[in-house]
Amino acid sequence: MKNIINYLTAFVFAIALISCNSTANPTSGNPADQYQCPMKCEGEKTYAQAERCPVCGMNLVKVEVKNNSKASASNVKIVGAMMNIMHKGELFGTIDLDTISNRQHLYGLAPLEYLKGEILIVDGKSYVSRVASDGSIAMEETYKVKAPFFVSENVSDWKEVSLPDSVQTIPQLESFLVETTKHHSRPFAFRLTATIESCEIHIVNLPTGTEVHSPEDAHKNQKSYHFTNENSELVGFFSTEHQGVFTHHDTFVHIHLITSDKKKMGHADTLSMKKGTAKLYLPTE
Fold first, then answer.
1. CB of 259 within 8 A of CB of 121?
2. Looking at the chain, which terminus has fewer C-beta neighbours within 10 angstroms, N or C?
3. What φ, ψ does residue 67 adopt, rounded to 5°?
């Protein structure tokens, strides 16, 4: 009888332990039924129900399980994350660009540390834009800067992709990339040259000592610039899985624009391209 009681006690304890572990682990069950913050405030943490993120309050989104064998072939390198700026106020540099050893055919973009400007690397040349004291754009070619997050790729060979004239704006370009690169390694860098009929770019220019707790805080005092009829090059990065890392939560692209005379550069907010002038380039696989 004593052995039976001991056995039953152990059995009940095991059942309770299993139940406890099941309740404590919100990610158990079918992975297709897991949910995650689109800003990834808690990294890769997932939940079993579509509730709200306990950090930023956004609705959790369903985690899509993808079997994309080409995804691992991507050569894109990522340091830091945009969400660490927006929600954690981590403005300091996580990478010193001067320490990058392989600059050959390097393409990359980032904000300056403490959100004091924008960085764009085009074929190994690093351009930095800041807001000058008179409000104009101050340009400098240098690697002697730091960035809170940075996305880059070394691309030696590009292939031109036919771009229809109906693609003239950033949302149209994003939609085009979503539909036409389903079998391309992701994430990836892309280039686009065009005559810009109208464009608005911005340069972050956060006042010294400002604390950041939200995207609104991060964009305080940023300066926007509008220009027309400029031959320009756009360098961007595309991904459907890095929102809050190197793209904002509502887009799959992050694009910086530089004019052909290298006198204007910044984060591209809006643009309209002249028909017949746009040429899109993707990395050769």
1. no
2. N
3. -110, 65
Which amino acid, one-letter code, is at 39?
M
120 and 142 housed in the same domain: yes
Which residues fall within 8 angstroms of residue 228, CB to CB, at 6 or more apart? 196, 197, 198, 199
Domain boundary pick from 25, 40, 62: 62
254 in Cβ contact with 151 (< 8 Å)? yes
**36 pLDDT tier (thresholds 50, 70, 90):** confident
Same domain for 248 and 127, yes or no, is: yes
Q: Measured in whole angstroms, how far is the alpha carbon of residue 193 from the centre of its chain? A: 21
Report d(CA 163, CA 130) in Å as an integer: 32
- Please write the tens of the pLDDT for every residue from 163-207: 999 999 999 999 999 999 999 999 999 999 999 999 999 999 999
Give me the torsion for CA of 161, 166, 168, 169, rounded to 10°. Answer: -100
Residues in the chain: 285
**Contact call for residues 271 and 200 (beta carbons, < 8 A):** yes
Percent of the chain at pLDDT above 90? 74
Determine if residue 229 is left, alpha or beta; phi over 0 gives left, psi from -120 to 50 gives alpha, anything else beta: left
**Collapsing DSSP states into helix, strand and coil, what is residue 217?**
helix
Distances from the Cα of 60 to the Cα of 48, 54, 81, 159, 262, angstroms: 10, 10, 19, 37, 41
Please tell me whether residues 213 and 113 are part of one structural domain. Answer: yes
Looking at the structure of the chain, the number of domains it has is 2
Q: Give buried/exposed letters for 97-127 (b at 16+ CB in 10 A, else e).
A: beebeebeebbbbbbbbbbbbbbbbbeeebb
What is residue 70's predicted lDDT score, i.e. its pLDDT? 45
What are the start-end ranges of the E strands in the chain?
A: 35-36, 61-62, 77-79, 95-96, 106-111, 118-122, 125-131, 137-141, 146-147, 150-154, 158-161, 188-203, 223-238, 253-259, 265-273, 279-283
